[in-house]
From TrEMBL, chains A, B:
The keyword Zinc applies. One of its GO terms (molecular function) is RNA binding. Residues 18-218 form the Metallo-beta-lactamase domain. The keyword NADP does not apply. It comes from the Bacteria. It comes from Psychromarinibacter sediminicola. This is Ribonuclease J. It holds the Pfam family Lactamase_B. Gene3D superfamilies: 3.10.20.580, Metallo-hydrolase/oxidoreductase, Ribonuclease Z/Hydroxyacylglutathione hydrolase-like. InterPro entries: Metallo-B-lactamas, RibonucZ/Hydroxyglut_hydro, RMMBL, RNase_J_2, RNase_J_b_CASP, RNase_J_C. Keywords: Exonuclease, Hydrolase, Metal-binding, Nuclease, RNA-binding, Zinc.
Amino acid sequence: MTESRLIYLPLGGAGEIGMNAYVYGVGPEDDERLILVDLGVTFPDMETTPGVDLILPDIDWLAARADRLEAIFITHAHEDHVGAVAHLWSRLKAPVYARAFTAHLARMKMEEAGLDQEVVKTVSAWPETVEAGPFRVGFAPVSHSIPESAGLVIDTPHGRVVHTGDFKLDLTPGVGEPFDEAMWAEIARDGVQALICDSTNVFSEHPGRSESELGPRIEELVAGAPGLVAATTFASNIARLKTLAEAGQRAGRSVVLLGRAMRRMVTAAQDTGIVTDFPKVVPAEEAADIPRQNLMLLTSGSQGERRAATAQLSRGKYLGFELKEGDLFLFSSKTIPGNETSVLRIVNAFSAMGVDVVDDSSGAYHVSGHANRPDLARVHRLLTPKMLIPMHGEHRHLRAHVKLGDEAGIPGAVAPNGTMLDLTGAAPRVVEHIEAGRTYLDGAMQIGAFDGIVRDRIRMALNGHAMVTLILEEDELLGDPWCEIMGLPEKTRNGAPLVDALEAYLSDFLYRADRKTLRDDGKLDDAMRRIVRKAAFDEIGKKPEVTVVISRLT
Amino acid sequence: MTESRLIYLPLGGAGEIGMNAYVYGVGPEDDERLILVDLGVTFPDMETTPGVDLILPDIDWLAARADRLEAIFITHAHEDHVGAVAHLWSRLKAPVYARAFTAHLARMKMEEAGLDQEVVKTVSAWPETVEAGPFRVGFAPVSHSIPESAGLVIDTPHGRVVHTGDFKLDLTPGVGEPFDEAMWAEIARDGVQALICDSTNVFSEHPGRSESELGPRIEELVAGAPGLVAATTFASNIARLKTLAEAGQRAGRSVVLLGRAMRRMVTAAQDTGIVTDFPKVVPAEEAADIPRQNLMLLTSGSQGERRAATAQLSRGKYLGFELKEGDLFLFSSKTIPGNETSVLRIVNAFSAMGVDVVDDSSGAYHVSGHANRPDLARVHRLLTPKMLIPMHGEHRHLRAHVKLGDEAGIPGAVAPNGTMLDLTGAAPRVVEHIEAGRTYLDGAMQIGAFDGIVRDRIRMALNGHAMVTLILEEDELLGDPWCEIMGLPEKTRNGAPLVDALEAYLSDFLYRADRKTLRDDGKLDDAMRRIVRKAAFDEIGKKPEVTVVISRLT
């Protein structure tokens, strides 16, 4: 038996922003006891994953070793950290630990999936710890853009690991605990073997700003608005929602929460005692008679999600509300790359209604929830870890973060998903590469990224689809071949129906085909597919996907 | 007959960035003589226009009045101003006027489309003018991000109109004419009836910066790079390409142009005498033996286009070149909204190769080609037009630009595509709304945006496609119904093949169906479609698109 070692293996979140899932192990090679930190999702897009509902980490490696998995720890309740728990738990079957607010939301997910809520255990903040095999894990409060975020203090026989989760250094975060430098200094006092650290904002050069900066500015904006005011932010950003609602309240406006996600988050925060002084909220049904200059709507869908309240309002009346000339809409949020066109569509629709739109470009109405470059450097100095492993970031973020550590003399490694590191020594060492990828939640099914299903959807979207039906009795044609098209022009460049043109080419081929060909489904299929693609290219300049159905009557 | 009037009608470019096409008319109502300014394209995306090659303005209104069209004027050679000329010219058949560089590229497009190049006429810069019916039009040089951009001075019986085209105020543009305040003051001396003005940068609060600022910074960056240097920008930005090439040359590097678009643009600039001192360029084939620290590659594809040189290099070897650790890649460009994910994919691929990527975020390596807010205000003051019509911008840009004009006491109008304005009086007046939309170039065909073709592609991409074949003789089934699927999971949640499950549901229905139903194709089709959608939803949680083929043997 080999010596015990401490390993780190990201299955998601390293080499991307989203879908966090990090494995730690302690024990002899290939026999480590394991824990998992976070189990999040990422979101599909039309370009690469049309029709997919959610993207989950591929946990095949871990599921095959589920008997060695001691526990799952969730740092905070953002979807990219907790969103896959209910979808993948049945393959892992380990207890799930989190702080109260996160645990509350994780239980709701388990319940909705028909799973046992009891597997989710609530843990108090550091210095409370949970023992999980050779690990002892504590949830040290950090500030972020959702309540009760935690950095994990992971004690192992090979030393202490700090896994930051998502965090920022905020002394006045509004809701939740401020950055506690003394606590972290104390945690690091006896040495940190490895710091596994959030990287998303490593390219932001200035120190991060506090949530508390926004209050006065938002108040001023709302106080000066003549008409209805609506504002959006992430539904889970309770501190921001409170800031916005207070601004409304102080301007004498009734606050309405529009959007299920938003109401659910505020309720969860109240139920778990995170906020006890959230301004009074008026149900949408009761707001009909309130004059528009006395209203403040908080709407879900800051990323332009089509079915959320913000997008609905941009398309017209929603739950009795309708924006118009003189109203104000505030995006108290940043637009995540990839969502720009959806958000701009909404901004332009509001513009066409005469609504004044204010966004985060001035910096006055939004602050990030992540530590910027100087903040990261400060944390490196504070914890003085023996080694630094950047996580949660695209490759460019991980690489820049390693360089930042290098400047402070801390050895590091760029470890994208699937890279297993040995953290036992003086510096990280790559010991193995695991197949780590993505699984798609597609309707009720989980499908593999390489199953070809999504590839076929993309091909149909790009090329259209032609279907050919042929009926044979022995080697005799019964009638003519029949074409149907979907996603293709009806007419050819000569103005003739495309299906007629394709059928003519096919008939021409079939009437010349010899008996051997007519008896061979494979050959017929191949030939007819080729003919349709070539004919369509000649007639309309496109090569469609082709499905051939050969029916043989017997 | 009614009195003569001066009208303005945007068919593209107003309410969007891209696809510029603006009609002006002079004459009695419904009998105006017309000119068209610009005829550009915009680019498709997977989200809204999968499979489409290019998006063209819908010119039905103008084509129906082609006998009244005197001429087409092209302000500059960007694709969103000239790109649709060859695709739509046959429906308009009017002479096309442009300055030499633009005309050169327009002729190449006409030639490639098998059209007569002779219809494209070269015009010298202002004060030369072209007479076109009641219009007299001159090309007044403006600075932009492509050579020989022009603002049009359009004299009519109802006064002078200035149509800026895309422009910035650059006193040292590197290639082409600097901003000539005296010339514009002279043009405006006797009064400007209407200013039709570029709006894309109205939200940029600071005065625009000059192209000449970049040279020293790029030189410094290139001089300090230890390995190979590659840089990308828009292929048509000849000034930038020259700045980049000169930086390479001064650092003792051989300059290689990678990408057809880039070579074509540089050649066009040389052929038309725009640049006579472009640094010497080495063909890719002859660069094999040059040490990498002596190379400077200029690559096409700054927007992440999959098949362009930049993307090819990010995927590995391209034309003998391969980037590696210690090399530098410069994006001397901004990323257009919607292209972020494609560009970031490339940045991360370079990061994984160990290449240092530098982008425009510092402001040191890119300047915009459009006039910013203070520049627009300056032009308003300089030309003191009677009225201001913002063009080339999304709705939010047009609206903000009208407000900016208001502040200077100039009446304006937000006129999105299809809004016909009468410019004859003291202020713009909306007189009509025209059906203005988009046409898709799809392979060899032009299809309408509302033909349902693209909608069907999107549906197949989101929902997958199931095909059902059924053979009947009179009202007797011949064999069982047959299912094929594309873009759907092979197995159901019970692990059974999906097609088997669907066929079982269909058979069940068919064996119970009465003769009347079996004789009615419409009823059968409807019922089977409904059954497949419901069954698939039960089995895999998705409702696919369904095509039913019923064959009746007679």
